[in-house]
Amino acid sequence: MVRVWLQLINTRIDSYEITPIKHDIPSSPLMAEASSDFNVGSASNRVFRIAELLEKRLRHANSSVHLIALSVSHEWRDVALYIMRPSSVANDFAHAYPCPPVKFGDRIPEQLNNWLPATTEEFDDLLAELELNLPWDRDGIYRSMDRFQMSDRPNIIKTVCFPGRITMASNATSRQVYAPQVFSSEQLMGVDIDVNLHYHCRRVYVPKWVDVTQFRLNPYFANLFQDAFETINGLYEISLQPPCPTDSGSTWDSLPPAAMNYLATQFLTQPPVISLNVSTWIPMMNKPRVRKALHIINVRNEDGIRVSELIAAMKAASGLAVEHWKHWARLLRVAVQNGHPKQDFWIVDGRPKLLVSVDPFSSEELSETSLHYLTCMHALPGRDKRQEEWIPRGLWHSEIPG
């Protein structure tokens, strides 16, 4: 079993050692077919130039193809821009909506009381989870710091983060606001972080911007990553894929200039956000906090961050993220080889990842908003999810403790 695990780890690491060779080739089946249709002398050239047919083809393509189509020809660009027109003001990311740019800790304006509201069912689920999973014995795992003196207790524990879209909802009751704060504070104590909560001193609940779940994300950004993109624990988490032997110019980090020019006109979020951090996960060995976010680069624009600005920052950060991941993945391989299958080695992500989070240093907030940020950054999935990033469940061959 361990031999199979090592083979899977080796294969994963090796896949990130490839150096791509850049080629100017069509980036999708649609683009390949269209390019051949535009060849001089092509019998179908005259037909394919008909705007109605081109529009029909592009409407059935995904948003990444729309971006690439901007650089094919004037005809393609005009049709693509026509298709990409926003259907309403609420879907127009070229303008600040529904309020001017905001940053971490800013108060949510009263006129946005109905902005991405939390439902009654979401509040009920949150409170039910708090009641069923006591902080010190969540999921049947003892979580107090004195577990480190007990050989039968796991050192690495699952921690959760409740999204700010719910905990900072304008329609939340005091209980729905403060119960998650108390839970988060006690949960952080289980990883040796003591937060001085002032929740009992608050007389008036004031909703604030605290994480990315409170924003609408531009679909032309999210769709660049397909299954490699996830909003989790108040962060955007992007898994970096292994490089292809041939780079077709269709991936998020090699978009043609016309696509980047378009994305330079598009806000990343609604409302626009002023400051974001780009980080990557790295392990922290022999500590209650088994991983941390390594800050790589900050993206800041007082007028609101555009999609192209975040992509440029991610391109600058991706190389370092991959190198850090390869280093820790090799150490994971050694730990698996020398350890016992029941040990929890799986504190290295199955792929290098970039994290995009709100920037807490853009604000002077020091109370419950910083508590929420700490909860986001120290949330940790359970062992089963972390191990499954490397090893399919069918190859575990043993019960996962806890």
The total count of strands amounts to: 9
Stretches where pLDDT falls below 50 for ≥5 residues?
23-31, 33-44
Instruction: Please state the CA-atom Rg, rounded to the nearest Å.
Output: 24 Å
Secondary structure: helix percent:
25-40%
The tally of domains stands at 1
What share of residues are in beta strands?
5-15%
General form: globular
Major β-sheet profile: 5 strands, antiparallel
Q: Please provide the ordered H/E string of secondary-structure elements.
A: HEHHHHHHHHEHEEEHEEEHEHH
What's the number of helices?
A: 14
Q: In whole angstroms, how far apart are the ends? A: 20 Å
Strand order in space, largest sheet: 3-4-9-7-8
Average pLDDT figure: 83
Structural class per helix/strand content? alpha+beta
Task: Describe the model.
This protein has about 400 residues and is an alpha+beta fold. The protein has one domain (about 1-25, about 105-400). It has helices at about 1-15, 30-35, 45-50, 50-60, 65-70, 75-85, 120-130, 165, 175-190, 220, 255-265, 305-340, 370-380, 385-390, and strands spanning about 20, 215, 230, 235-240, 245, 270, 275-285, 290-300, 355-360. A five-stranded antiparallel beta sheet has the order 3-4-9-7-8. It has a two-stranded parallel sheet with strand order 1-5. Residues about 25-30 and about 35-45 have low confidence and may be disordered.
Topology readout:
Blueprint: H1 2-15, E1 21-22, H2 29-37, H3 45-48, H4 51-59, H5 63-69, H6 74-83, H7 120-132, H8 164-167, H9 174-189, E2 216-217, H10 219-222, E3 229-232, E4 235-239, E5 246-247, H11 257-263, E6 269-270, E7 275-283, E8 291-300, H12 307-338, E9 353-358, H13 368-378, H14 383-388
Parallel strand pairs: 1-5
Antiparallel strand pairs: 2-6, 3-4, 4-9, 7-8, 7-9
